[in-house]
Amino acid sequence: MIPADFALFARLLKERSGLALGAEKSYLLESRLVPVARKHGLASVAELAAVLRTRLDAETVRDIVEAMTTNESFFFRDIKPFEQFRTIVLPYLLKARAQKRTIRIWSAACAAGQEPYSLAMLLADEEARLAGWHVDLVASDLSSEMIERARAGIYTQFEVQRGLPIRYLVRDFEPEGDHWNLKPAIRERVQFRTANLLEEPMGWGRFDVILCRNVLIYFERGTKTAVLERLARHLTPDGFLILGGAETTLGVTSKLEPLADQRGLYRLAAAAVGV
Question: Residue 59's domain spans which residues?
Fold first, then answer.
């Protein structure tokens, strides 16, 4: 890929998804975009770049962005956040929301749905304590293709073998051929939406828990700040933000602060409450 074409695609991806690509990613970019070029009847990525220079067709742009931002995930990935949810976050909310009996959770950048479905399985474990409660579990991703996959709730043998405890496989899935289908009792707990973290999610309200894990690592600092402060605006005053283990708010925004001795768990800073 010639430098001018790389710069064109890199600029487009940063504007539309926040993804920051260095020149060393040129080979990865080209390999991901070859199928996009073929889908649109073009012989090469160079021809795809030429098309973009003449017109920014919405479908073509969407396919380019989705090709580069479709990230893999797996059930109960990095088990620590799910342990924190079960032992710290949920017990707190059950006390703090005892009058309203409503909890709202947002799993941002959910890929094929393994993260929100993992949360749904944990919530099913707590069915007795949550009797009479309404839990609003929303999951979003930039990729419409991933959202459709997530809604279907169908996973390969390989996917269910990655991190999923056998007791959940037995309780919450049904085998069909060489795939496993999530049962409706779990699948229907999650509302899936297509959303871009670079844009304000209008009308979504505030959430008691927001998970945005392993996404910020792909952004430059300015984009990280904008995304974190956008998430902070959608967090209840005593809510929780859960980031990936390699991500932090320190030095990025003053609106969120870490919980002592709890890696990856954050709350609104006192000065940000009420924003």
Answer: 3-69
